[in-house]
Amino acid sequence: MTIQTLSGAVNTAANVYFGGKCVSHTVTLPDGTKKSVGVILPAELTFNTGAPEVMECVGGGCEYKLAGSNEWRKSGPGEKFSIPGNSSFDIRVAEAYHYICHFG
Amino acid sequence: MTIQTLSGAVNTAANVYFGGKCVSHTVTLPDGTKKSVGVILPAELTFNTGAPEVMECVGGGCEYKLAGSNEWRKSGPGEKFSIPGNSSFDIRVAEAYHYICHFG
Question: Which CDD domains match (chains A, B) (predicted)?
């Protein structure tokens, strides 16, 4: 089951990465927690993390490979994967990957 | 002055138009009003309206031309323009145009 909505204060300005291959909006929940909702379009990209992140798929899908791994794994609707802080992951998307990014 | 945040329930799945040249997320306000927050990346696009729309710039800028007009006009941060229902407008963006779309 996927999370359909997040309630909070959404930043009206988007975060645009990789020339628009990844676009997200930051949402601040009532308790102050920040998350982002976004989409990755067809591409193969490498993201670096500061804080640890959990990527939760809410539509479409991706394959991802964590730093230090040789294994591409699939992630689809309702599935999550975790990335340590100060690390990186590769992600490849064939159609679209809609996600919630949880920090910390 | 630009609106920095919108409080409500944001749809976690993005709306992707024109192969990603326009990406938005729908936000439902507590009173049930729907708006969207989005970004248009460098492109020249034509959008059709169903309901009337007001486009409010919250970052970057664009030029737009309403159906039936020959005049390109600029819209920057804090500025709005209105499009009638069942009409269309052309928009061209050199860098990025971050917006809130108000419906009805």
Answer: cupin_PpnP-like
Tell me, yes or no, if A40 comes closer than 8 A to chain B by beta carbon.
no
Question: How would you write the pLDDT of chain B (104 residues) with one tens digit per residue?
Answer: 899 999 999 999 999 999 999 999 999 999 999 999 999 999 999 999 999 999 999 999 999 999 999 999 999 999 999 999 999 999 999 999 999 999 98
By C-alpha distance, which of A93, A41, A48 is closest to A67? A48
The predicted-structure confidence for A51-103, as pLDDT tens digits, reads as follows 999 999 999 999 999 999 999 999 999 999 999 999 999 999 999 999 999 99
CATH 3.40.640.10 corresponds to the domain A9-103 = no
Check CB contact under 8 Å for A37 and B10.
yes
Would you list the DSSP string of B25-75?
EEEE-TTS-EEEEEEE-SEEEEEE-SS-EEEEEEEE-EEEEETT----EEE
Between CA A99 and CA B47 the distance in angstroms is 26
